[in-house]
Amino acid sequence: MPTPFPGMDPYLEHPVLWPNVHNSLITALRDALSPLLRPRYFVAVQERSYLDDPATLGFVTIPDASVIGLYRPAPIEAREATATVAEPMTIQLPPSPRVRETYLEVQEIGAPAVAANNSEEETARVVTLIEILSPGNKRLNEGRVQYLNKRRQIIDSMTNLVEIDLLRAGMRMTEIEKAVYYYSILVSPALTRPRALFYAFTVRDPIPSFRLPLQEDDEEPLVDLNTILHELYDRAGYDLRINYRAEATPPLEGDSAVWADELLRSAGIR
Questions:
Q1: pTM (2 decimals)?
Q2: Counted domains in the chain
Q3: C-alpha distance from residue 5 to each of 206, 215, 266 (Å)
Q4: 61 lies in a domain?
Q5: Domain span at residue 242?
């Protein structure tokens, strides 16, 4: 079943579902771009990781003792009749989860170079960085600090940046005054900085297509992110994991909530 929404489906933002959507969309975007950019460019999926602070997650779940079971050690013989020995139970402490985030690098394939072991290897220069923001990038924690540092380095370099934000919750990377929007795409070509292109849209809009910046004088392919996401939705079967009779997480508000309710009722799924 296709998504009932014309653009970004807000139900895909659920914190349980989003990590799968994020990683799958990164791969789908790679698969869509690779045929358009070869043989000059290679699209690589890269990964970074950091320890997240449980206090910033909004909730921490500690499994009930009945679920993880009770560990009963061998009885301890008290040396004195008056001593009381309590039996401990095993509990599970919430760890600081390690978050892994994927992103894309468009690498320009260069001429073979001689490696340290005297073998030939191909050099590649990162021309464009494509980021799809995750919840960890949008709240005060190590993930945001790490991402902002990298973002600043990219903007100060000759590498192009594409930043896609499909999450309504959290702090935005780019704030536009007097603009009403939920989602955004920032396209920052190195050659035009500090000027950049900013696409702002709501849950009612199709996701805008954008040109992927590359090297000067190279043809810039059109990225139809709306089609890429909707085809991924169909292939992955996300409708099997979504209950459209319930509210989205985070919930829509105001006119958008009324509009979404009418949309879902007209589609016969609420």
A1: 0.80
A2: 1
A3: 8, 35, 12
A4: no
A5: 10-56+95-266
